[in-house]
Design a protein that fits this description.
The protein is mainly alpha-helical and 304 residues long. It is 80% helix and 0% strand. The protein has 15 helices and no strands. Helix 2 crosses helix 8 and helix 7 runs antiparallel to helix 9.
């Protein structure tokens, strides 16, 4: 018999909103940017792109499951209201669901590699799956390194969107695709890194109980919040300057317009510096996601 509560619990742990943002980012990169960079248009079919997006979503969902599998002790302290493991979702079913999603993601990756004649896709998918397991089981509680790995994997999304197009692109087009993927990846990396610091500030009590040595545990909430704010200010100014410079003409108006796209991230970091109630942390998390959405949405209108 199908257990509706268990399925609902698993879906909750998979964090569907985050998966949707990753899928949206890939759509923005493909149709907003890559389609305009290639002289002959997109070479990969819609099915190939859908398969590529499915791989990313499946691996991310599996990573979220295994993360919560190892985080039971911390979540009982930090997020007791969200605790479903051991209640509606047995731990053994959680690990089974992780295995099923990982296998499905790798099967799609192998099929896609065969379709486009490039095993980079399968190799990268296997590496991402392994890194997500490593992060959850060992790296998450370390100083900085866990945050950097999550930010790096987030920054790989634009590259993943470009991979199906690389095999048929000319050498100049490949260089341009990779350049823009790296540029958007750096923005995603920066925003995600700040978000991870802020999440760690919220999770200090549970992380301390679990013996973790995250940046927030080692530095404390005040110093970590100031570091997150400084990082977000630097990211905002760098993003605006580079994006405006890449535009047809650098103007003060274009610079200001690109800064406005990063304003949610600035507000997120500033809020954490002064206000640290659960409601404000939730708001900060949402603004981080809004910043990512805005940063990728500009792919549709950025002059090339």
């Amino acid at each position: 018999m199908v257990n509706i509560k268990e399925i609902a619990g698993l879906l909750k742990i998979m964090r569907p909103l985050n998966l949707g943002i990753a899928a949206m980012a890939m759509v923005a990169m493909r149709y907003g940017l890559n389609a305009r960079l290639l002289d002959d248009g997109l070479s990969a079919s819609g099915w190939v792109f859908a398969e590529s997006m499915g791989i990313m979503v499946l691996l991310m969902a599996a990573g979220n499951l295994i993360n919560d599998y190892f985080d039971i002790k911390e979540d009982r302290i930090n997020h007791p209201e969200r605790q479903v493991i051991g209640r509606s979702v047995p731990r053994r079913d959680l690990i089974k669901a992780h295995a099923a999603l990982s296998i499905a993601g790798m099967a799609l990756a192998i099929d896609l590699s065969l379709r486009i004649g490039d095993w980079t896709v399968a190799a990268l998918a296997a590496l991402i799956g392994a890194l997500l397991w490593w992060y959850s089981s060992a790296l998450k509680g370390t100083f900085v390194w866990g945050n950097l790995l999550v930010a790096l994997l987030t920054g790989l999304v634009p590259l993943w969107a470009a991979l199906p197009e690389l095999h048929a692109a000319s050498a100049p087009e490949k260089a341009e695709l990779l350049w823009w993927a790296a540029a958007f990846g750096c923005v995603a990396f920066g925003v995600s890194w700040v978000r991870e610091i802020i999440k760690d500030i919220q999770d200090i009590p549970g992380d301390q109980a679990a013996g973790h040595r995250t940046l927030a545990v080692e530095w404390g909430a005040d110093r970590s919040s100031k570091a997150a704010l400084r990082a977000q200010i630097i990211l905002t100014l760098a993003y605006a300057a580079v994006a405006a410079t890449w535009s047809l003409h650098f103007t003060l108006l274009s610079f200001q317009s690109y800064i406005s796209l990063m304003l949610p991230g600035l507000l997120m970091a500033m809020t954490t510096l002064f206000l640290r109630s659960p409601a404000h942390f939730q708001w900060a998390d949402r603004t981080a996601k809004l910043t990512l959405v805005a940063g990728f949405a500009i792919a549709f209108v950025l002059p090339l």
